[in-house]
């Protein structure tokens, strides 16, 4: 069965991440598929809204670690960079329904959505620093812009988990509701949007994002370059090894010179 399922209903494209047994963790192939889906939807006049959610009890646990270690991002054209570019360029509304785990990219991908409805079970986290890497999807810009620097520092520099209510307070979630109402609410919102005049809808989104687009593109570029360096560092090697071995990482014995790129 496909790791990503799509369905068209009228003018709505539904995209479902479909690896419930892995909490919809993302592989390189999934990033490429998503990028292609958004790029194709951008050109399809019959698609006016995208509804995005995950199968099972989670939205996405972020990168699939095993796949990630086999295919670490490189500076420039990586699967993740392709999806970031597709999302930045997408001028139609994206409605997300989030329950359970939304970790790493599972949180940062949501910053490109126009509506994020979160179930009470939703749990968010940007644990990049814990893995000795840096934020992605332009979140080093978008999260401080939405939440303020001090609150963003708590999320990014400490990598702390936070619940749906906290996400709403931080401006990362549109509304919090019972899980059983989540997909119904997101679907109805997508239907309401699909009834709006499509050209005006796209123009409204473009205008709202015009003042931040350049900063977002710049942040994504710098993140991609820094991430490709950090993921190959001695710190990252220790962090990922510890993660796989289910132990706490030890960064004390890593010298400053080794902490730079391997």
Describe the protein.
The protein has 262 residues and is of the alpha/beta class. Helices cover 47% and strands 15% of the residues. The protein contains twelve helices and nine strands. The strands form two sheets. A six-stranded mixed beta sheet has the order 1-2-3-4-6-9, sandwiched between helices. A three-stranded mixed beta sheet has the order 5-7-8. Helix 1 (28-43) links the parallel strand 2 (12-17) and strand 3. Helix 1 (28-43) runs parallel beside helix 3 and helix 5 (139-147) crosses helix 6. It is globular.
Based on the structure, what is the oligomeric state of the protein chains?
single chain
For the largest sheet, list the strands in their spatial order: 1-2-3-4-6-9
Strand element count: 9
How far do the termini sit from each other?
38 Å
| Fraction of residues in β-strands | 5-15%
N-to-C series of helices and strands: EEHEHHEEHEEHHEHEHHHHH
The 3D shape can be described as globular
Helix amount, in percent?
Answer: 40-55%
Q: Which regions have little confidence, pLDDT < 50, spanning 5+ residues?
A: none
Radius of gyration: 18 Å
Number of helices: 12
Briefly note the structural class of the backbone.
alpha/beta
Give the integer mean of the pLDDT values.
95
- Let me know the largest β-sheet: 6 strands, mixed
Quick rundown:
The chain is of the alpha/beta class. The protein has helices spanning about 30-45, 65-70, 80-90, 105-110, 140-145, 150-155, 165-170, 180-195, 200-210, 215-230, 235-245, 255-260, and strands at about 5-10, 10-15, 50-55, 95-100, 100-105, 115-120, 125, 160-165, 175.
